[in-house]
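Sanity check

After download, print the first record. It should look like this:
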Amino acid sequence: MLNTAGSWTILIVDDEQVIHDVLTMNLRHMEYNNKPITFLNAYSASQAKEMITDNPNIAVVILDVMMEEEDAGLNMVKFIREDMQNANMRILLHTGQPGIAPRREAAERFKIDAYLDKNVTDNDDCYVAVKLALRAYEEHLKLKDSAAKDDISLMGDLSAHYIDLLAGSDCRNDQKSTLKKVTNMVNLVQQMLGDYALNDLKNDLSPGSTKASRLSLDDYRALIRIHDIKVILSHTPSDHFYSERSVNFDMLVQAAKLFSKIKILPEVCRQDLQKHIQALQATQPITDF
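Expected structure tokens:
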């Protein structure tokens, strides 16, 4: 992987050396947000795939539509968006035969940022397109970071709710109060998953991509276990709640234990919750499910 922490990486994909030379000459002095440009050069689809796989931090790809085959360039777009699941990377289609890839079809179906004609000699068009693509790339990264910050905050809130739920006597004696607290927690989980879905839409990601990048399958199951508890409590007759209070309490403790193992839970929250669970286990046995 190329170390480009202090620069923006642009990958030029074209089977003609002269295109690489012209683009490099036209863009070599470009800066965006006080960061220069670093170029990567690929001369075939297979070489481009290898570079993209090894350098997921590429900001912009200037991609020839026709290389070894007529659809090689557009297949490369599919590789980036679908196989690599990379929605951050900005893509500029570059071709001397506009009829091969109509602008509307390319933009809508393949989610590209701009369409550049090799036959146009005005270098300003390419310069402006790359500049705008760098801005879009930066905005996508900010959106992704925002989603990460939001879910960490919600995880902290959920941890505090678990501690509050287990600390009081309501979860043993008051079905209405317990169900209300559990419902509030379910709402937070739904908000978190809804934010993930919204981030997918904003970033043109496949449904579930953000969730999969933030939560493992076990983490997701631990997160939504509180929803299962809500369903159980909602269908428990009020006259049975008190007689089943020990089972219900054990169920909540086990859910809290699983929740405390979720990787994106802030460490300080994890430690507070685990200390509380350990204190409960020291005073009474908890049944593992």
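If your output differs, re-run the checksum step. Summary of this record's structure: The two ends are 45 Å apart (CA to CA).
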